[in-house]
Design brief:
By secondary structure, this protein is of the alpha/beta class. It has 2 domains: 144 residues, P-loop containing nucleotide triphosphate hydrolases (Rossmann fold, 3-Layer(aba) Sandwich), CATH 3.40.50; 237 residues, no CATH class. It is 41% helix and 14% strand. The protein has 14 helices and 12 strands. β9 and β10 form a beta hairpin. α4 runs parallel beside α5 and α6 packs across α8. The longest helix is centred in the middle third of the chain and has 21 residues.
Length: 407
């Protein structure tokens, strides 16, 4: 019954590059019995799963990889596939893009409870409500989130797999001169310049598509945006197709702002839809990996529905949308997006009254170009300038690109 699925697995797994693995690969405890890997569309979840398959299962009948949208999978059913795999000595069942399979949470719970000898590894959209689904899997699953490529990861790949180790935010603040010097030296030994590498990353380094060439990068990225809008969000949040134009208008508003400070009442009036819908649309776009929220620090960790600022989730999205819509990207919004995007994975990041950001409740950052001064934050303790356009910093002026070296 499942022989055809093993043939598909063989065909797609044999072309996977094993030389470069994402930061998350070695952080996952692969011994857990039910593993969820969430992430935005296009960040590399499928590659990570197939790398694990290739590295750990030489015998193809011990582990089976399937995709949730495969017609054979939908015809046979996940539970039936898992049952036959187990009866034939299979040990691991990998299900990619599970959010595309109907009633996934019920079947997954049934597999987990009824086939205790089978390990299950699952990937799904970043917007998937895994824990709060109809069938609660919180006591069974270990959930990991895969972010897009950091500037550090991109640099390692661009330098032909030259290793650059990650640094903590504390290490960067205390020793940024030496760290920047080491990285600059490594980059130049490979015949490249750190600021050119950084500018390339800002445009086309967050998604692994650049490995297939940069000429088609934005076409692929715009295709990702379309699939998120027309496939992922409607299927996960039961959104009507008539609502999608409003999502597109919100994306354009954020992309063209300096940066975007949401006035929900005004947006509601301009678009002709209720404030409740606007709140929901913004929330869907954030969960789907297209928006990035910045909340005020005064609110701490309390639930706040309206963020103080909204950015596109990463800098590459600005350039993809710019190419399709022909507007001028605001450099300030681009820099703030980069810092927030790179730090949010490992740190708490909020807005600050005097600086742009406060990180981990302690470090205050003001973000700007190479001529940015400390005038605005000169009397603020633990405050620093993150400066674009410089290779090496000085005192409390830190090169902006170093914020991408934390993971």
């Amino acid at each position: 019954m499942i022989e055809g699925l093993f043939e598909i697995q063989y065909e797609i797994s044999r072309f996977i590059d094993q030389s470069t693995k994402r930061y998350l690969y070695n952080e996952i405890d692969w011994h857990n019995r039910l593993i969820f890997i969430k992430g935005a569309r296009g960040v590399g979840k499928t590659t990570l799963l197939l790398q694990y398959l290739n590295e750990n299962f030489k015998s193809s009948d011990v582990c089976l990889y399937v995709s949730g949208d495969n017609i054979i999978v939908n015809s046979l059913g996940l539970f039936n596939i898992a049952s036959e795999l187990n009866k034939n000595g299979g040990k691991t069942f990998i299900i990619d893009e599970i959010h595309k399979y109907p009633d996934w949470s019920q079947e997954l719970k049934n597999i987990y409870d009824s086939i205790p000898g089978l390990k299950i590894i699952v990937s799904g959209s970043s917007s998937l409500e895994i824990i709060k689904g109809k069938y609660d899997l919180s006591r069974r699953a270990v959930v990991y989130n895969l972010a897009g490529l950091s500037f550090r990861e991109y640099s390692c790949i661009a330098l032909n797999n030259e290793y650059i180790r990650p640094y903590t935010i504390k290490e960067i603040i205390e020793d940024h001169l030496q760290i920047a010097g080491k990285i600059k030296e490594k980059v130049e030994q490979k015949g490249k310049k750190i600021l050119k590498l950084f500018n390339d990353y800002i445009k086309f380094g967050y998604y692994p598509y650049f490995l297939e060439g940069t000429d088609s990068y934005f076409m692929k990225l715009n295709n990702v945006i379309e699939k998120v809008l027309y496939e992922d969000i409607p299927s996960i949040f039961n959104l009507r197709p008539t609502s999608i134009p409003y999502l597109k208008k919100l994306i354009y508003l954020v992309a063209t702002s300096v940066p975007f400070s949401p006035n929900i009442a005004r947006i509601s009036s301009n678009l002709g839809v209720s404030k409740e819908y606007i709140y929901n649309y913004i929330d869907y776009l954030e969960k789907a990996g297209l928006f990035l929220f910045l909340h005020p620090s005064a609110e701490g960790l309390r639930l706040v529905r309206k963020p103080e600022k909204i950015y596109l989730e990463n800098t590459n999205l600005y350039f993809a949308i710019e190419g399709a819509s022909h507007f001028t990207i605001n450099s300030g919004a681009l820099r703030e997006t980069y810092v927030l995007n790179q730090l949010k994975l490992l740190h708490s990041v909020f807005s600050h009254k005097k600086g742009d950001l406060i990180v981990d409740g302690k470090f205050i950052f003001e973000i700007g170009g190479k001529t940015k001064t400390r005038k605005q934050i000169k009397d603020v303790e633990d405050s620093y300038i993150l400066s674009d356009g410089i290779e090496i910093g000085f005192s409390k002026k830190i090169p902006l690109y170093l914020m991408g070296m934390t993971y």
